Write a sequence for this structure.
């Protein structure tokens, strides 16, 4: 097949993998081969190829493409930068891929595991049966500015779709908090998933054990209300929907002395348009920890727009501090 790459076994980067695909060229990158196969159907079920950043020395994949790109059955691990950084207006599909342990030493950036920046109203992204795991900040002592969307960050897309995916242990390591001030991180948004100008459709996806922690009193006044959350949807995300999803044992801890603080929660929705909607259907929010002061919520935090919640369960979620105007499982600004 033309423009199809087969990857067998494991590959350790000896330099940054930065690729620009010529305009009009559609590419498929297929992993899961062991060698000796004559067709993709010869691959054994569950086998994935590995692309390693060589213990965070090199970037595993940074690609620019204006045409569709398909990647399947590859684990991207230990990248110096993001596991995958996709630029250009071309669509991207990830199938049975894992992005694990990437972006540890990056500073105040968007996306540690995965970042996609496309063309608003045109570019589409789809992830099927993918895992985003252990993409965390904390590689430098006293690293206060820790960034946004540690599992995945999406910007300027017509639609992003996640089916049967897992976001687990993204965000901040427990040991990464500065010892002299456990509240010390600032400029933190979304331990698992962040989207702006990119409505999302999320089905059968689990958000488990992701951790966010920040201190609003370290941020300037202009940033009040910008911090926190496990999943964070900002401007241009109206029309998003979550179906059959699970939020379990996540932490969204935010300390603030400011009365107009509005961060935190497991799902934070602020599309900046009153008519914009987000649907939550057949979802479960259980055993999440929200250590939040002032105008936050335990789970669903609606800052603008409309959220419809149907046939969903909230149970065993814990708020450890009682502040001003704090919601229970749901807060509507």
């Amino acid at each position: 097949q033309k423009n199809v790459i087969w990857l067998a076994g494991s590959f350790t980067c000896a330099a940054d993998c930065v690729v620009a695909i010529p305009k009009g060229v559609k590419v498929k990158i297929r992993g899961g081969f062991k060698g000796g196969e004559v067709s993709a159907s010869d691959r054994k079920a569950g086998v994935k190829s590995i692309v390693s950043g060589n213990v965070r020395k090199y970037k595993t994949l940074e690609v620019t493409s204006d045409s569709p790109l398909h990647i399947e059955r590859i684990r991207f691990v230990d990248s110096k930068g993001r596991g995958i950084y996709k630029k250009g207006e071309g669509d991207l599909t990830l199938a049975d891929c894992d992005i694990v342990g990437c972006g540890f030493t990056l500073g105040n950036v968007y996306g540690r595991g995965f970042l996609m920046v496309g063309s608003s109203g045109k570019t589409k992204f789809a992830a099927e049966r993918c895992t985003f795991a252990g993409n965390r900040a904390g590689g430098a002592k006293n690293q206060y500015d820790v960034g946004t969307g540690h599992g995945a960050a999406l910007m300027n897309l017509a639609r992003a779709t996640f089916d049967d995916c897992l976001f687990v242990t993204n965000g901040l390591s427990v040991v990464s908090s500065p010892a002299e001030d456990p509240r010390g991180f600032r400029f933190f948004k979304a331990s698992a998933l962040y989207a702006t100008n990119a409505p999302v459709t999320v089905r059968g996806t689990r958000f488990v054990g992701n951790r966010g922690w920040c201190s609003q009193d370290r941020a300037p006044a202009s940033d009040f209300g910008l911090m926190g959350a496990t999943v964070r949807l900002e401007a241009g995300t109206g029309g998003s929907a979550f179906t059959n999803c699970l939020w379990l044992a996540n932490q969204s801890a935010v300390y603030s002395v400011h009365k107009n603080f509005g961060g935190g929660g497991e799902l934070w929705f602020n599309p900046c348009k009153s008519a914009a909607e987000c649907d939550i259907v057949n979802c479960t929010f259980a055993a999440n920890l929200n250590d939040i002061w002032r105008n936050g919520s335990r789970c669903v935090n609606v800052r603008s727009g409309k959220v419809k919640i149907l046939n969903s369960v909230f149970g065993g979620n814990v708020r450890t501090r009682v502040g001003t105007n704090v919601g229970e499982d749901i807060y509507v600004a």
